[in-house]
Amino acid sequence: TDSDIGGLPLPTAEENEADIRGIFERTQQAAHLGAELVVWNEAGFMLLPDQEEAWQDSIRALAAACKTSIMAAYVVPFHSPQFHYENKYILVSADGTIHQEYLKHEPVPGEPAIRGVSKQTTTLIGDVRVGGAICYDYDFPYIAKDNDLNGADVVGLPSSDWRGIDPIHTQMAAFRAIEQGQSVVRSTRFGLSAAITPYGVMNAQMSSFNDDGKLMVAQVPSQSIQTLYSIIGDLFVWLCIGGLLGVWLLQVARRKMISVGVLGLGAKVDSAERLKSKDQWGLGSGEWAVGSRQCAVRSWKILPRMLVRVLRRGLPPYDVSSSDYAGGVIVSRTTSMCSCINELIISSSNSLIN
């Protein structure tokens, strides 16, 4: 199309009629070249609300005369209470029957388009089931999934881009084709048009910035294929998220297991008592805080040094009278830090550590 409508100011009546005339002529050329489905780009032209029914009749007559199906995309502006428009397409079969009327479901942020909420449908044309969406809609996998659930073989995608996202936006549409095993025909204003197979191969592509008549004719597979993604959806993604969460929880658990618990019956060690480890353990500024229920190493990073010290010199003596402690057991649950010490269990009736 030659239309550049995207908001205010609207094209004049003469400009709009020239846009309509140009896209009708290209539709006739495509039908003459053997096209069975003609997909217009997004916002092919503008129709005022009181003109829409008459122009829909003209599109129906064009489809019947060309004996080809047409996915005709256009906008219908409204001015109350503020400027907004319907960004839509209609799918007309070769006998002139309107089978689908679709409003864009996911307007681009800031786009004053009325959001479509109706359920997507597909239409059987010959032995090919045709679905559709509009441009930004296919950035959302759920819309492609809806087409798959409706049995779509070929998806028409009227689109409109700009230099900043061209051609990557068309390449993104290839992901939807691969995911759901559908052929996608993306007709793009201000960007790259492409005919994409269910394997993501672009059988044909054409930039609207090239001076080549703005007409592309291509062939795509007429039957969809079943893909793994169409069956399991985002299961793999959720499994990855679950795996990352599991690794994080394990790391948290390992850090908690660095603490050395004092488990025993009748423990009466004063919680305010602190045993300095600088001289006995060679740990520098590290210290053990001994309480009535636990003895915690202040930093897990010093534990390897502690283990090396134990292996070299043995455990330092700490005398705790039997009146203050009876039947005590110290359990070191740090099993992964040193292969030589898997579990340190020291039991004594007379001392905390011998």
Please describe what this structure looks like.
This protein is of the alpha+beta class. The protein has helices spanning 13-32, 52-66, 141-149, 168-180, 228-232, 235-256, 278-281, 303-313; strands spanning 37-39, 69-78, 84-92, 98-103, 123-125, 128-132, 154-160, 183-189, 192-196, 202-207, 260-264, 274-276, 287-290, 294-297, 328-332, 344-348. Helix 3 (141-149) runs parallel beside helix 4 (168-180). The radius of gyration is 36 Å and the shape is elongated.
List the helices and strands and how they pair.
Layout: H1 13-32, E1 37-39, H2 52-66, E2 69-78, E3 84-92, E4 98-103, E5 123-125, E6 128-132, H3 141-149, E7 154-160, H4 168-180, E8 183-189, E9 192-196, E10 202-207, H5 228-232, H6 235-256, E11 260-264, E12 274-276, H7 278-281, E13 287-290, E14 294-297, H8 303-313, E15 328-332, E16 344-348
Parallel strand pairs: 1-2, 6-7, 7-8
Antiparallel strand pairs: 2-3, 3-4, 5-6, 8-9, 9-10, 11-14, 11-15, 12-13, 13-14, 15-16
Helix pairs in contact: 3-4
